[in-house]
Design a protein that fits this description.
385 residues; globular; six-stranded parallel beta sheet; Rossmann fold; alpha/beta
């Protein structure tokens, strides 16, 4: 079976898409991938075609849109000429164009399958619901990555309920490269005598950094042994909102380090190795690769009690839970975490073992391959009618 995977944001999503491609190869598929300009493709064993300009910061929206249309036309030609059976979709960066070209794929006898990270974009535009409905209607099969998202999908698109299933997000254990904590803290200029919390990843409204800064500011009024690291790039958000909170609570360099940029892969290990506890104060999320990295590095998590986190974060066992959007609840959860220093290693190890067992890439590769076979059989039957 020939599969072409599209990943328009591989620069940030490569851990998932490269791991999936490798698992599909192990399951017997022939796989190629179309990506953005992600530089290091060494982990991925399939051919990668760097075509999308979606991750570029130095070009305008018009050039990106024209490139997007051009790449889609190239994909159509390649998929048909080289007789791909499946085109696997993960993201829909320009939903009207995606809907148009996915329809063209299906009309040309190539079966579209969607492995959905975000059922709808968190920065949803007025036209997205309409075009996402059309996208999903043209896909032969759709899978989401958390149990709660099956119900969410079916509530949004009840007419497509029979197409959607669950195949979970795989672990990121292969990507962990831990350093000694003292080495990592020296490298980042972080105090060695503090409890260090880490917020890592894209900064956007739904991630709840404002809630975290408020919670941490409140907590610093009660305790003087804490430190917070915030590392990641701003995505369709305004950091000045967070800077105002930093200034309001007087969070200076003695308690806070901010590194507001895209963190290259070679620097990632230092951040996770330097921290004691990772904080995920998200208001909502469909699934989280960040949580997989937390447990890959064997760290406990403080996370909001939303379904995608509750599947893996157990209060007092592998982390601590708080109410979403509630700074006081988050502050108390962080304080519980700070008080459990002797349990951090064991909690992180339990989280790591849980994802290792539950989120095996071998199992995921086999399940996705089985889904492809079902999708293709159904697609060909309908085409023959």
């Amino acid at each position: 079976m020939k599969v072409l995977i599209l990943d328009q944001i591989a620069s940030v999503n490569f851990k998932y898409s490269f791991s999936l491609a490798n698992a599909l190869l192990d399951a017997g598929c022939r796989v190629e991938m179309v990506t953005d300009g992600v530089e290091d493709t060494g982990y991925c064993r399939c051919p990668c075609h760097r075509r999308f300009l979606t991750s570029r910061k130095d070009i305008g929206k018009l050039r990106k849109a024209l490139n997007y249309l051009s790449v889609w036309r190239w994909i159509l030609r390649k998929a048909r000429r080289e007789r791909f059976d499946i085109v696997h979709l993960e993201w829909f960066s320009l939903s009207p164009a995606d809907a148009f070209f996915i329809r063209r794929l299906a009309k040309r006898g190539i079966c579209p399958v969607a492995g959905v990270h975000d059922i709808l974009p968190f920065d949803q535009k007025r036209f997205d619901l309409y075009f996402y409905r059309r996208i999903y209607a043209w896909c032969s099969r759709i899978f989401v990555q958390a149990q709660a998202n099956v119900a969410r999908f079916q509530a949004l698109f009840p007419e497509l309920h029979d197409k959607v299933s669950l195949i979970p997000h795989g672990h990121f254990l292969d990507f962990a490269a831990p350093l000694p904590a003292d080495t990592a803290r020296t490298r980042l200029g972080i105090p060695k005598d503090r409890t260090v919390f880490l917020f890592f990843g894209q900064i956007k409204k739904v991630k709840g950094l404002d809630v975290l800064l408020t919670a941490f500011g409140q907590l610093c009024r009660r305790r003087d042994n804490l430190f917070l690291v915030v590392a990641g790039s701003v995505w369709k958000d305004d950091f000045s909102v967070y800077q105002e909170l930093i200034d309001r609570f007087g969070l200076d360099s003695s308690v806070l380090r901010t590194d507001i940029r895209f963190i290259p892969e070679e620097e990632l290990s230092a951040y996770y190795s330097a921290c004691d506890v990772c904080v995920l104060p998200y208001r909502d999320v469909y699934q989280s690769g960040v949580l997989q990295l937390v447990y890959a590095y064997g760290k406990p998590a403080v996370a909001t009690a939303i379904p995608s986190f509750e599947e893996f974060v157990s209060e007092g066992e592998s982390g601590f839970l708080c109410a979403p959007g509630d700074a006081e609840s988050l502050s108390r959860a962080m304080e519980r975490a700070a008080d459990r220093k002797d349990s951090w290693a064991a909690m992180g190890a339990r989280g790591r073992e849980k994802v290792r067992k539950a989120l095996s890439w071998d199992r995921i590769g086999a399940r996705v391959t089985g889904l492809y076979k079902e999708a293709l059989a159904d697609f060909r039957q309908k085409k023959g009618q």
